[in-house]
Amino acid sequence: MESLHAKFASDHVQRAHATSTQTLMSQPSSLRLNSANVAQQFARRNPLDAAQFLYGEIAQRMLQRLSYIRIKPHTVLDAGCGNAHALEPLRAHYPDLNYIGLDFCAPMLETARSRFASKPGFWQKLRNRPTPPVRFQLADMAQTGLDAESIDLIWSNMALHWHPEPHHVIAEWRRILRPGMLTMFSSLGPGSLVELRTAIQNADLGTATPQFVDMHDFGDLLLENGFLDPVMDQEVITLTYRTAEKLLQDMRILGGNPSLDRHRGLTGRGWHQRLVDSLEQQRHADGTLHLTIEAVYGHAWRAAAHRTTTGETRFSISSIGRASDIVSPIPAPKKGPASRS
Hints:
Elements: E1 3-5, E2 12-17, H1 35-45, H2 52-66, E3 75-79, H3 87-93, E4 98-103, H4 106-117, H5 122-127, E5 135-138, E6 151-156, H6 166-176, E7 177-188, H7 194-202, H8 215-224, E8 227-241, H9 244-253, H10 269-280, E9 289-302, E10 305-307, E11 313-315
Parallel strand pairs: 3-4, 3-6, 4-5, 6-7
Antiparallel strand pairs: 1-2, 2-8, 7-9, 8-9, 10-11
Helix pairs in contact: 7-10
């Protein structure tokens, strides 16, 4: 099984392709998440450098997928950009891109501005010539405030699962994308954090954890919102730990629990020790604790025409008369074996 050592020596990542059997959304609906609490929790975790052991790894796997796709975007939106960790990797692929980083958490954007807005980046120094300026925008992913059909590529890494209305986000992405252009995202799937959920239940803590959308539902939402040829896949990443305390510390680093149904009275040493004791009961034969991450990946092309739920077919004015300018999708690369030696 392929493995990847994370930044701390005690932990590693394993990967295996799997098919999810859980379905959360058969119809578009709101998730039980508190948006204000999401922003507050990430503000407390700013900057997100410590979380890049997972977020950065998922971004690299997205970039591998992007490398197979023939697209030359001019304007790129990083939706849910956080501290803009994706900026320089995206510039490595597209040196002349106009980058817009959008996030709902003001402190995150302030850190991003201080790092990138007024200083030359690595790729700018390497090329020794001016790089287009970056722009940061404080806004909700479902209400970006951007002009219609103004974006060539929407990139969103591990952000969509923090939004309570992903169907509205995808509808907004269609509005701001130019016809024939691409959206690419990653998200947590419903198979994530199963060990933590089990420990909470066994410890009888009476609290809820966030819900996540199944990849098949994301595919349906993309089709329903005027996207073509959605490609969805997922993989299971297993984080392994020597101590329960380290596992819980990483959960806090990655964003905490913004569920509307979480028990707000869970404070103090008592509940924490009960949770630790419950996790300890899940030790494997090698003495490690596991935490499952189901990473969902998706990309799709913005159609020029969109059939609405009322039966109307709406065409993009900008696409009329220039169909030859629209980028044609290419088949998704074939998946390799589930494991490599």
